[in-house]
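Changelog note: in this version the structure field was regenerated for every chain. One regenerated record is shown below for reference.
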Amino acid sequence: TIANLKRYGGVLPNYSLILAVENAQLTAPLTLNLAAQGGVLFAYDEANTFKTDGTSLNPPGDFWDAVRMDLLTSVHLKQKTSHGVTTQINSGYVDFKAILKRLKKNGYSGDLLLENAPTDEPLHDAVQSRAYLLTISKALGIV
């Protein structure tokens, strides 16, 4: 993995290479370590750490204790329940309040990528998800 990341980075050396993993089989701290050793940035999606039964591949705190904010280029926000990824970000396995609090505390300056499962009303779902995240952010004094 590390050799491949370095090789891919050499293909377009003037562009940042970002490791983003969907439906992870490896723990987030291990994936972060691979990205760091490969010399690439990492996009994190905490929902990927949760299995459908709500158990996680690793406690999310393990990742947050290990991550250096300068290696984290994107935080991918989506919610997961026993039914899969939700159409709106709200209640489920992912604790967005804890994530936003950690990002603020550690001075994160990268982007937040919002993802909802497809529906017939994607704009409505995106607006509702944004409103939910803003409510949490305001309660934490972030915005």
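Spot check on this record: The beta strands are 18-20, 41-44, 72-77, 80-81, 84-85, 111-114. Residues 122-140 form the longest helix (19 residues).
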